[in-house]
């Protein structure tokens, strides 16, 4: 009998907690990103064509506050065409979906990003040519500071992809970004 009463009490408390939760609020923003596509040549055929394509690009973000400590967020990294080694270029674009647990420390909000991202890479050059798309686990960390009730700034690091044998070719690829930008919360 006490187990049934305990279950009813816990169920009621959970229901009341959900019923009193604030409705989700939405936010959108943009960042300047230092985006890096690191490409490692694993063919074993000289010359080694490994390198990093470092681009400054835009990242668009949008999301919603689901709970006080959890957001859902989407990233779109706009493509930039960059050299990663002699005679080799890559143009990378990314779309990612993330759970964003966060914690307030005074006015600063610390957050993590855990989710799934898809990288589309267009290769041109002597090592690889053509377009390849790969998906995988993505993660990151960041800080956010409110300037006003609706406007805040953020800085974060996200690793969007780490893949061996990218597209079935002996290339190891790591896509990551360090970004700084602003977010507007619709309240």
How would you sum up this structure, described in words?
With 187 residues, the chain is mainly beta. It has an eight-stranded antiparallel beta barrel. A hairpin with a 4-residue loop joins β6 (130-146) and β7 (151-163). The model has no long low-confidence stretch (mean pLDDT 89). It has a single domain, classed as Beta Barrel (Porin). It has one helix at residues 2-19, and strands at 25-41, 51-67, 70-85, 88-105, 108-125, 130-146, 151-163, 171-186. The protein contains one helix and eight strands. 10% of the residues lie in helices and 71% in strands.
Write the layout of secondary structure elements.
Layout: H1 2-19, E1 25-41, E2 51-67, E3 70-85, E4 88-105, E5 108-125, E6 130-146, E7 151-163, E8 171-186
Antiparallel strand pairs: 1-2, 1-8, 2-3, 3-4, 4-5, 5-6, 6-7, 7-8
Q: What is the CATH C level class, in words?
A: Mainly Beta
CATH fold descriptor: Porin
* SSE arrangement, N to C: HEEEEEEEE
Beta strands, count: 8
Level-2 CATH architecture: Beta Barrel
Shape: elongated
Radius of gyration: 21 Å
Question: Roughly how much helix do the residues carry, as a percent range?
Answer: under 10%
Model regions low in confidence, pLDDT < 50 over at least 5 residues: none
> How many separate helices?
1
Q: Output mean pLDDT.
A: 89
Into which percentage range does the β-strand content fall?
over 45%
């Amino acid at each position: 009998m006490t187990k049934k009463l305990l279950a009813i009490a816990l169920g009621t408390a959970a229901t009341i907690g959900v019923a009193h939760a604030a409705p989700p609020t939405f936010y959108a923003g943009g960042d300047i990103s230092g985006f890096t596509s690191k490409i490692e040549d694993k063919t074993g055929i000289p010359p080694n064509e490994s390198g990093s394509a470092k681009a400054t690009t835009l990242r668009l973000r949008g999301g919603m506050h689901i709970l006080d400590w959890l957001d859902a967020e989407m990233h779109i990294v706009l493509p930039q065409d960059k050299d990663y080694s002699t005679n080799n270029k890559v143009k990378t674009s990314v779309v990612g979906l993330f759970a964003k647990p966060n914690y307030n420390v005074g006015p600063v909000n610390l957050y993590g990003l855990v989710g799934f991202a898809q990288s589309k890479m267009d290769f041109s050059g002597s090592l690889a040519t053509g377009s390849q798309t790969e998906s995988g686990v993505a993660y990151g960390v960041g800080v956010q500071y409110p300037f006003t009730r609706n406007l805040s700034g953020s800085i974060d690091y996200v690793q969007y992809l780490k893949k061996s044998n990218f597209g079935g070719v002996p290339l190891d690829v790591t896509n990551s970004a360090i970004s700084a930008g602003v977010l507007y919360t619709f309240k």
